[in-house]
Amino acid sequence: MALKKILDSNPKLYNALKKKGEEKKYNHGDLIILNGSVKDKTAFIFKGLFKVTLKGKKPLLLYHIDSQNQCIISLMNFYTSSVKTSITSLEKSSLLWVSNADILELANSFPLLKIEMLSSYHYNNQQLLLTMDTIMRKSIEDRFIDYLLTKSSIYKTNKLCISWNEIASDLQISKTTVFKIIKTLKTKKQITLSEEQIIINKFSL
Fold it and tell me: Around Cβ 161, how many Cβ atoms within 10 Å?
């Protein structure tokens, strides 16, 4: 649920969060976490789009978070002793950071907050499992198509400005593979290339 709908339905919760929290703004490409430095906080998304990446020698795109579908980034859900992720802003974004200690205190007074925190936890885990399942079960071409469709849904357009380097990095495939798949999709007339855009025509999955 969008944060605005949650806060509009409960102005007391909004005021409590604003009083406890600190609003920060980010630009495209900004990391919103650095080595777990804000692991003890929760972010409420006022505006923005983010990607969650599995950290390592070859970072892998896991999934996206947008303000309409997932309004809370609880870093308690992103870190374990063995798995670490990074979260990057993909556009101008605004987050309200609130300490987890304050969140736990407020959750006792506002059941809605507790429900949304649990929803955030389940969303993150569901998206992670879906990504792992996709990697194991689907071909590279199908993963590529899913990637384009996801981007199209997020940006609400069939005209995508994505560099081949970004695609290769997000999907952890070579630029040569990106070229081959794009060539195949063009031949099938599922996409069209126009200047620096990939235009989605249709897919028959």
Answer: 12
Q: Do 29 and 89 form a contact (C-beta atoms < 8 A)?
A: yes
**CA–CA gap between residue 133 and residue 199 (Å, rounded):** 27
Q: Is the separation of the CB atoms in 87 and 35 below 8 Å?
A: no
Among candidate residues 102, 78, 72, 104, the one with its CA nearest the CA of residue 6: 72
Say if CB 121 and CB 74 are below 8 A apart.
yes
Count of CA atoms in the C-beta half-sphere (13 A) of 59: 15
CA distance 85 to 25: 20
Q: What is the 3-state secondary structure (H, E, C) of 35-85?
A: CCCCCCEEEEEEECEEEEEECCCCCEEEEEEECCCCCEEEHHHCCCCCCCE
CA 177, CA 173: separation in Å to the nearest integer?
Answer: 6
Question: Phi and psi of 87, rounded to 5°?
Answer: -125, 125
Listed in order, strand segments (DSSP E) in 108-182 are 159-160
Q: Which helix (H) or strand (E) holds 89?
A: strand 85-89
Q: What is the pLDDT of residues 145-167, one digit of tens each?
A: 999 998 898 888 999 998 888 89
Residue 100: strand, helix, or coil? helix
The predicted model scores a pTM of 0.75
